Amino acid sequence: MQQPGRRFTNPRSPAREGKLVTVGRVEDLPEGRGATVELHGGKELALYHIGGRFYAVENFCPHKGAPLADGQLHGHAVECDWHGWRFDVRSGACVNRPSEPVETYEVVVEDGWIRIKV
Prior knowledge:
mainly beta
């Protein structure tokens, strides 16, 4: 379901099932980088490694659908490449458009494996 005020609905956002999905090893994503995580059924998320921690958000900007995993990181904020909207990867809040957040997903690291709760 589309959130109020959203211009773009992310059809590739995974359904919330309350399960942990293993997406890779800690060493697969260098510090200060983001990556697209492809899940079952063509669903995907954006995963970031910042300050020794991992964060996951939906991969598409609510403005026009740009992939956020491709955006530039500025501290804990990722900037959409298309129109400059910035999202705090810890909370999903849009820094320059407070009414346009993205969904966040819990990330767990166990024995060197990165798992995301979907």
